[in-house]
Amino acid sequence: MYTQDVKEYFEKNGKIYGVSSKYQFGEWDNKGYIFYDLDKAWEWLETEEYDFRERELLTQEEAYELFDINMDDDDPEGIFEWESTIKGWI
C-alpha cells in the first residue's frame, strides 16, 4: 500500500494489518500482525528481521485473502499475533 492509502485506511478502520514473509524450501512462510497504532506499524515495517523476510502493510481484505480466511470471521485467533505476544510492536 502507498503511504497515503495506509493513512486513510487506518483513519477509517482504526487498525491495519502487517505481513512478514519469507520464501524457504519452495514455499512462503507468512506471519500476520494487527496494529492499532499507526506509528508502531511504520516502525515495524522499517525494522530489519535479519532472516531476509519481506514486510508489508495490508488491508483486512488483503490479509484475509493471503491467509485464506473467511471474511465473516472477525480477526481469528491463531492467524494474527496479538498485543500480548508482540508488545513491542502493537
Question: Would you write up a description of this structure?
Answer:
This protein is an alpha+beta fold and 90 residues long. It has one domain. Helix content is 29%, strand content 28%. It contains three helices and four strands, in the order H-E-E-H-E-H-E. A four-stranded mixed beta sheet has the order 3-1-2-4. A hairpin with a 2-residue loop joins strand 1 and strand 2. The longest helix is centred in the N-terminal third of the chain and has 11 residues, at 3-13. Mean pLDDT is 80; it is low at 82-90.
Question: Which secondary structure elements does this structure contain, and how are they paired or packed?
Answer:
Layout: H1 3-13, E1 16-24, E2 27-35, H2 38-45, E3 54-58, H3 60-66, E4 80-81
In whole angstroms, how far apart are the ends? 19 Å
Q: How many beta-strand elements?
A: 4
Chain oligomer state: single chain
Beta-strand residue percentage: 25-35%
Identify low-pLDDT runs.
82-90
Q: In total, how many domains does the architecture comprise?
A: 1
Strand order of the largest sheet: 3-1-2-4
Number of alpha- plus pi-helical segments: 3
**How large is the radius of gyration?**
13 Å
Sheet/helix structural class: alpha+beta
Largest sheet: 4 strands, mixed
Overall 3D shape: globular
Which series of helices and strands comes N to C?
HEEHEHE
> Overall mean pLDDT score?
80
Helix content: 25-40%
Outline of the structure:
The chain is α+β, with helices and mostly antiparallel strands and 90 residues long. It has one domain (3-81). Helix content is 29%, strand content 28%.
